[in-house]
Structures are given as structure tokens and as C-alpha cells.
Structure prediction request, 811 residues.
Amino acid sequence: MDLFRSERMTLVQLIIPVESAYCAVSYLGEFGLLQFRDLNANKSPFQRTFANQVKRCGEMARKLQYFKDQILKSGITSFVSPTMQPDLEIEELEIQLTGLEHELDEINHNDEKLRMAYNELLEFKIVLQKASGFLLPSKRDTYAEIELGENVHSNGNYLQTASLLEEEVIPSTLEQSRLSSVSGIVCKSKRLMLERMLFRATRGNMLFNQSPADEVIVDPSTSEMVEKVVFVVLFSGEQTRTKILKVCEAFDANCYPVPEDVTTQRHIIREVLTRLSEMERTLDAGLHHRNQALISIAQCQAKWANMVRREMAIYKTLNMLNFDVTKKCLVGEGWCPTSSKAKIQEILQRATYDSKSQLGVILHEMEPTDSPPTYFRTNSFTKAFQEIVDAYGVAGYQEVNPTVYTIVTFPFLFAVMFGDWGHGICLLLGALALLALERKLKNQEVGSFMGMLFAGRYVLLLMAVFTIYCGLIYNEFFSIPFDFFGGSAYKCRDDSCSTAHTMGLFKYREPYAFGVDPRWRGSRSELPFLNSLKMKMSILLGVVQMNLGILLSYFNARFFGKQLDIRYQFLPQMIFLNSLFGYLSMLIVVKWCSGSQADLYHVMIYMFLSPTDDLGENQLFRGQKQLQIFLLLLALTAVPWMLFPKPFIKRKLRQESFQGCEYRRLGGSEVDDDMDNEPDPSNQRYGDFNFSEAFVHQMIHCIEFVLGAVSNTASYLRLWALSLAHSELSTVFYERILLLAWGYDNFIIRLGGLATFAFTTAFILLMMETLSAFLHALRLHWVEFQNKFYHGNGHKFRPFSFSSLTEEGGH
Prediction:
């Protein structure tokens, strides 16, 4: 496994007999290291050879998704242990899925009809119980007699209880009554609109009574609970009745006849309750039968889905192949790692033998016309770091892979900003918990946030380890210093200076063995000292990483044979960066070692403004002024060195190559390599060389590097800023929450302070600050580090693999 450069790839052509094509593609999917090229890109999906097979697989996938939705809707748990089922052919599976879908549709249809009939009976019962309160004989003195001999008005769906309503209940006083009534039930959300519309339709000649239903009714189409209201409308006249019934129908209100006689009401209610109990038993039996059918499907659903996904992938891959002129062979092309070519040949031979084909599969190499895909062999440890790099851009073919260095530099720069070994221990415990549950979580469906944490478990582990290391250097444990590595090198100037807030500290012994001296904590010099330390350390780390990036550009140019890039890009970039910021880094180290009080701000500013002036007390070593003038001249020389030679040399090489001359003065294969492998658009192998475009491109690249050298170095100061912010925030939480609460002699206050401190530490420092430091470390790698050498203009190697189908299906 070589992470520094991608695997060497080979373009191969396969000539497969028709009878062994399915078996060969299936075996290649099991192996998973051959990326097929689509030779039918100009054809629509319906014009391809195996379009019917893909359509059948899509239909089976739809049925399986329908089963999955029904299982989730019914609330059946997905962890049912699968039973051992005999292997099915895809044709048998298709027939079985069709039968199961038909059976399930019939069950659902019958259940919906029963549920609707049950709801109508339930509504009738509720209306009988509620409406009788408005139609009691004691109230006839107020409303006169009420006519109740009505038929069923329930929008035509009331079938099951029609026999209960065929009897006309007409009291002897009905002929003398002057008021009529309509009783029904409507959704609670439509009650107010119904009342207003009835008032307008009858011009106010009606009396609207209502009462909320005591029971909630389930809508059979949506399975949602619906609140309803029982209403009774009192009116006079047949025309008014017709209007009221039409309005009720428009608002989906179901109307039911309510007899005036109490004895008849009780009789009907008893019959309705009997029918309801019978129907409940029928519904329970139907639900049990449906659940049993879904459980049997759930036990095989994952296996069937995997079969269908594999089958569809095979036929989609076969659709990427072309028939030869004899229509007896399929011709395919694809990329594979050079190291896996022999293994692919063995697999194809096995496919020929298993399919009992008389002709073998022919595999031979082809000359590539486009750039090969990029493929890195990764494992569970390196995969997350590779994904971080690929999120910026996939490396070009055989380009230097930043992942090798990101594995170390990314968690380290994170730790520089997050350095606290107490917080590091918390991160370490979380990472170890994810590693301990690795086998369990790998085979489970987890949420997006948990899935992201699990995928980056090794990144989190290294971040925690480096955070502990940097926390020991900063000597911070939840902002508390410790003296693990011997006594402090400083003490107070007198005995009264216990906290060193007034008189300060002075050094009386050898420096503290490892990290920041614990006596700096709480002193008046703490903030200036840590500011200076972390700011200069940030510049040093930034210059080192930027130099590493430029050095990697040299390895890229050397590997691809680009001598022009080495001479007119790598060398001036190294000279420019180190003449300015490399010199600044050297001054920082010299000042630390010598203990000088020189002002480096003054030195760097007047290096440009007045390079010939004496440095005075800011001189750190002999000959510093002459060295600064020399470095300044080098930096000024490096700018035209980067800008002018490369486009002019390219133009000259192009002119001589067109004249048929072999121009080798600069050595090697500069004509081919420097012209063909250049990523900018001005260099096209079969096109004319455009000097103006090449010059403008080089000028943009030069200006970007010169300005970027300044801005990128300043950008690394975020290491200092975030580290200081994290330390100060941790100190505030410790002193203003925990210590303040601990100063009270009250258990409740102390417990509350401890809980508040734990909450703020967990959610602000361990979550928000972790995310902030992660994003800043990501930016430093993507922008400040990778832009020195990384083009990221490649495309991923995406082989035909069943394992990737399984991962996609699991998510």
C-alpha cells in the first residue's frame, strides 16, 4: 500500500462471449477492482441492450421499498432475526414479490374498507349518544316536536349498518311538529365554517347545537387521529333541509338519523355496540394477519434487497458494454490497478469455466487517451484522512498525496489550538468508546452526526493524543497548572509576594524541565509571556509547513519530468519565502537562544524601509545588516525569476518543436513533459501555443504566491489566537464558576456550580471549540499548505463493486 502516490492504472479491453457475460461481470463485481467505461454514453437508457432487465429490477426494487414502508408504518422492529431461507433465482424472487405485493394490497384494501365501516358505526354511536341530549322530550316545550323519520345521509359510504337504519322511527306527534332536525358529525377544524355557512344558507332560520366527541376517530387513509364534533341543526321546511344536507356534504360532514323515542334510541345503540365489538374482533384478526405477513417479509427483506441491487448493478454494467459486429461477443473497456491485472485474468478464466462457454474471455491492454483515475489503497485508519483531502479535490494521477503528511500535521495543528490535557483526556475517552464499539456500530444504521463521528474515530483518537501532548507543554489541565516535571524555576521577590500580582517573579534555578513553568499562571507577566510564545511558535509552524508544501512541489515536478517547474518555480519560491519569513523564523530562534531584547517587529519593518540603517540594540548577531540586504535582494530577484523565463522558454520550445527540431539544451524531455503535463489551459498537446495566455497565467501564479506568502504566514497566527482564546475561556469557567461556587459553604451551591462547570466545559469547550479548531486546522491544510503543490484535478477510481452497493444500501 503506497499512499504517497496513487496506484499505477492500466486501461484494458475485454471481449466477452455473450453466454459468459453475466457470470464474468458478476465475478468482477465480487472482486471490485475494475472500473468500466461507458461505451454507450450516446444512447438513452431505453435504447440499451439490457434495458428490459434493468426495468424488471427497478420494479422489484419498488416493491421492496413498498414492503419496507409498510413495515415501518406498522411499527415492526427491524432487528428480527433472519431465518434460513433457500437461495432463490431472480426469476423466482420476482414471482414471489409480485404475489406478496398483491396479497398485501388486498389486505390493506380490506382493512381500509373495514376501518371505514367501523368509523361510520363509531360515529353513529357518538351521534346517538350526544344528539339525544339536545332532543330530549323535556326540551320539546321549547322547540316543539322534532321530526326524526330520516334516512341515512352519509355520503354514500354507509353500507355495513344500513340494516339498522331501514326502520322508520316516526312518533305519533310527528304530524303536528313544526321543527325538523339534522344530526351529524364533522371534523373539529371545519366546525366553525360549517356553522357560518349553514347560517347564511338558511338566512339565520336555524338553531345550531354542538358537542365535542368523547372518542378520537382514526382516519383509515392517513392513520392519523382526527378530533370531531357532533352537531344538531334545528330548522323548519323541506327546502331548508335540502340546503342543510348539501352544505353538510360539501364540508364532509356525515349525517345520521336520531330517533326521538328513548326506547328506540337504546335499542339502536345496543345493536351498534354489538356490531362494533364484532368489527373490532375482525379488525384485530386482519391486523394480526397483516403483521404476520410483514414479519415474514421483514426476515428476508435485506437479503432480497441485496439480490436486487446486485442484479441491477450487473445489468447496468452490461449496458455499458458494446456488441461486436457478429453480435456474439460483448466488448468492454475499463481501468484496473496494474498490480491486479493478473488476478482479473484468473477471475475471467473462472467465469468462462463456470458458464461452460466454449470461448474464453480476452483481456488485453490499451493505450490510454485520457488521464487515468486516482486510486489509493486505504484502510480503516487512513480512510478518514484521505476523505479530508479528497473533500478539497481528488489528487491527479500519480500526484503527491497530502494524506501522508495530513495524518500527522492535521491533529497536531488542531492540538496547538486546543491544547489542554484535561480536555484531551475527554476526547480520548470518546475516541476509545467509538473504537470499542467499532464492530457493533459498523453493521448498524446510525444517525448522520453519529455516523460522522464513527467515520472519523481514528482522526479523533490522534487529535486527543496530540491535545494531551500540547496540553502538557502548555501545562494546562482544565486551565489548572501542575508541576509534574520538577519545581518551578521562579519565585517571588519577597515573602509577601505569595501570588506574584504585585512584585512579579525572578528566576533562581534551572528552567522547568518540560513545558510552561507552572508559576507563570496567575502572574502579571502570564499574558504577555504566553502571547509572545504562542505567536512566535505559530509563525515557526507555518513557515515549516509552507516549506514542506513547496518541497513537495519539487517531488511532483521531478516525478513528471518538469524541469522548467523545478528551475523557474520551485527554486524562486523557496528563495522568496525563506529570504523573508525563513529569516524571521531564524531571528525568533536566535532571540530565544540568546535571550536578547531585540524588537523583531522593528527589524522586519526597517528591513524593507531602511535596509542600510544601523540596527542598534536590535542587532542579534554580527553581519546581520549585510545578511538582510542580501536576503532582500534575493527576494526581489525571485519575483522576475518566477514571472518571465518560463513562458518565454515555453514559446521557444514550442516553435522549435513545430519546426521538427530536437531541442534538448535544457535536457531530458522538456518539450513533451513540460508542455503536455502542464495543468493550465494554455498548454494543449494538439493546439497552438498561446503565449499571451501562458504569460497571464504565469503572472497570476506569481502574484498569487508573492501575496500568499504574506497572507498565508499571517493566517497561521490563528494557531496563536485560538489557543489563547481556548485557554482564557477555560480559565474563566474555572475561576468564575467552579471556584466561585466552591467558596460558599453550601452543598447545593457547590453541586450547582460543579454541574454548570461540567455543562459549559462539555458543550462549549468540548463541542463548539472542538468544531472551531477542527475547521481552522482544515483551512490551514486546504489553503495554506496544499495550494503550494496540490492541483487536485483528478477523478476518483470508482470500480464496479458489490461491497460499495452494500454500503450504499445500508445507509
User: Anything to note?
Assistant: DSSP finds 25 helices and 14 strands in the chain.
